[in-house]
Design goal:
671 residues, two-stranded antiparallel ribbon, 2 strands, mainly alpha, 25 helices
């Protein structure tokens, strides 16, 4: 039985309260404070505590924990003091929407990657790595700061006594990069608004990641400020289980008298099915397990089935000795050759992702035509009053944002002939990952391959100029650690707009404010902590390992002088063909058990959660077979409690680390 219809009721506060304002000044104030808190937690954790990574997923712990505290602790306390002081469910949804986009920006999300990419070429260039010969002359002065007055040296190594932070060195580059981020946000907003009705109403995608958070805001009756879910004993049982699990992890890694959990569960280990096959990571992730409860059963099944099939395919290739000729890995940071450590699978899964996105546009063709007609003729019958933007504004944002991105990269040095394929691949990744989030609820949804790799391999490095290769490397900033940057979060925000009908324009303004605040605060905070502590003492990925690996990889490709690679294009076509077949079977065989989205999703970093996904698929199968939809719905509070308890334990662990274990924080959450 599918769980598509067996999701918790979410309610519609906007529907029941008419046009009652939910985007209120206090909601904006609380949402802004939440964004700032997320910025501080992420950056301070990376810079000082160095414990759990709280900004890795599409619904990050750094958002869920403070939101849970707001719903479970702060709001009831305000209601106890004076009922009208408490935030209404609609206001809580506004705060959640602001937090969703705000959590994308700091640290791993974008700003640490941005600052690391800007500073690394001039700081890490040496005669040995030859960056000064191949890259530095192709970086315009407005694109990245120079080491004037040791500005970059001090960033990596810390300011000497009495020196002040050289803010002026960063002003011009960050102004231009900020304009690019604004353009990307604009076309992401436009695409999210344009696709909302198709995904939410026509295709009825379930947006699984939103279900637990929305359930926490529901009122059991008017005037109540504690959600009905929270009143359930099952909620607190799940909370206690997850909180106890993470507390045990913390204590066992601190005190020798507390026994550790079996390594196969935490921190996990590699399990080899066969010496030719890639290993499986055995870690049991409660966070993934609990969110998986709200994912459709066919999606969970298809994910682990396609994982096993691709594992067997790699084993077969290795057994017969096949490997793409001249393979030196994939341009990116998700392993030597993509998530699977195998270029064939990366290209195959990217081909499947491309077909998924293009087929989605084909299915939505009538809706897209109506949107364009509405943009050209406001009197067209399609109604856009409930959207965050009018369709005319959404189309203008999409076209204007893409046009500015196009000319920005061209002005920076990317050849015109490279721009359209690059933007095409970028949109495939953004829209594809947004579809993952809306349909499959994938927490660790990362692209199976980067748009930069796609560009380099279809063109060949022999025909790409050095300036274009340099700009393609810098464009990894927009990859946002392969998570699709803002569009997946915005796709969820516009779905939240359905629950506060009639106030979409205000919600748009609130979300725009959140993006602006998150960018400014995270940039200023990262630079301040960088110059205070030296970013070389931060987590090594955003400022050292990630930028240096990308520039080194680009340099090796520039020296190789490759042509268009037909083998990779062959696997791209194979993946696309298989995806087309799976889509056909899905539409024409009602009992076909496998969801096509499982194929491209299996090529993402969600593969690290395979054990958790298999287990939750088994649990849901038993519940649905024994008790049906009714039992499934009754069990939902337990898994929402797991999410709440898990994130609160991670938060309290960081608080303890900030007092007793600075620089040696405990690892409670990660891949």
């Amino acid at each position: 039985m599918s769980s598509r219809s067996a999701v918790p009721s979410t309610g519609q506060p906007g529907a029941s309260a008419g046009v009652r304002p939910f985007v209120t000044p206090r909601a904006l104030a609380v949402g802004t404070l939440l964004v700032i808190a997320i910025d501080f937690w992420n950056i301070y954790s990376e810079a000082v505590i160095r414990g759990s990574r709280v900004n890795l997923t599409q619904f990050p712990v750094s958002l869920v924990a403070p939101f849970v505290l707001l719903v479970l602790v702060l709001n009831p306390c305000l209601a106890a003091l004076r009922q009208r002081w408490a935030l209404t469910p609609g206001e809580l949804l506004v705060v959640l929407g602001m937090g969703l986009v705000g959590a994308v920006i700091p640290s791993y999300g974008m700003t640490s990657i941005l600052l690391g990419m800007l500073a690394s070429p001039f700081y890490h260039a040496t005669p040995e790595n030859q960056w000064d010969i191949y890259f530095l002359d192709h970086i315009p002065p407005w694109l990245a700061p120079r080491d004037t007055g040791f500005a970059l040296t001090y960033l990596f190594e810390g300011l000497p006594p009495g020196a002040s932070i050289p803010w002026g060195v960063w002003a011009i580059p960050l102004l231009w990069w900020g304009s690019l981020i604004a353009a990307v946000a604009a076309f992401s907003f436009g695409i999210a608004v344009i696709l909302r009705r198709q995904w939410a109403e026509h295709e009825r995608l379930v947006y699984p990641l939103l279900k637990p958070a929305i359930a926490l805001t529901e009122q059991p009756h008017p005037g109540a400020f504690r959600a009905g879910t929270v009143r359930s004993r099952l909620f607190w049982a799940g909370f206690a289980l997850a909180f106890g699990f993470n507390t045990w992890l913390y204590l066992s890694s601190t005190f020798s008298m507390v026994p550790s959990l079996p390594r196969i569960l935490w921190p996990g280990q590699w399990f080899y099915l066969d010496r030719y096959m890639p290993p499986l990571w055995t870690r049991f992730n409660l966070y993934t397990f609990a969110f998986g409860y709200f994912v459709n059963q066919d999606v969970l099944l298809s994910f682990w089935v396609f994982n096993l099939l691709l594992t067997g395919e790699i084993g077969l290739f290795r057994r017969v000795g096949y490997r793409i000729s001249g393979d030196a890995g994939v341009l990116g940071y998700i392993g030597a050759s993509g998530v699977w450590g195998n270029a064939e699978m990366a290209w195959q899964c990217f081909g499947a992702l491309t077909v998924l996105v293009l087929w989605g546009f084909y299915v939505a063709r009538r809706h897209l035509i109506d949107v364009v007609r509405k943009a050209l003729r406001p009197g067209h019958s399609i109604d856009d009053t409930g959207e965050l933007l009018s369709y005319r504004a959404a189309v203008c944002c999409t076209i204007g944002g893409l046009a500015y991105t196009f000319f920005w990269f061209h002005a920076a040095g990317l050849e015109l002939r490279m721009l359209l394929p690059f933007l095409f691949a970028l949109l495939i990744v953004y829209v594809g990952l947004s579809r993952f989030v809306a349909d499959a609820g994938t927490l660790y949804a990362y692209s199976p391959m980067s748009p930069q790799e796609f560009m380099v391999r279809i063109s060949g490095t022999a025909s790409i100029s050095a300036s274009s290769m340099t700009l393609l490397t810098y464009s990894f900033v927009l990859r946002a650690n392969a998570r699709g940057f803002l569009l997946p979060a915005l796709a969820q925000v516009v779905r939240l707009g359905d629950l506060i009908r009639g106030q979409g324009r205000r919600l748009f303004a609130a979300v725009a404010l959140a993006i602006f605040v998150a960018f400014i605060v995270s940039i200023l905070m990262t630079l301040y902590m960088g110059y205070t502590y030296g970013v070389s003492n931060f987590r090594d990925l955003p400022f050292t390992r990630y930028p240096t690996s990308l520039f080194d990889r680009t340099l090796s490709l520039m020296k190789s002088y490759t042509d268009t690679d037909p083998e990779r294009l062959m696997f791209l076509a194979i993946g696309g063909g298989v995806m087309a077949l799976l889509t056909y079977l899905r539409y024409h065989l009602p009992r076909w058990p496998l969801h096509p989205i499982g194929l491209p999703m299996a090529g993402t970093s969600a593969r690290s959660s395979i054990v958790s996904i298999v287990l939750i698929w088994g649990v849901k199968s038993i519940l649905l077979r024994t008790g049906g939809v009714a039992l499934y719905r009754r069990g939902a509070p337990f898994f929402i409690g797991i999410i709440a308890g898990y994130t609160i334990a991670v938060f309290l662990g960081h608080l303890a680390d900030s007092v007793w274990f600075l620089g040696q924080g405990h690892y409670l959450h990660g891949w």
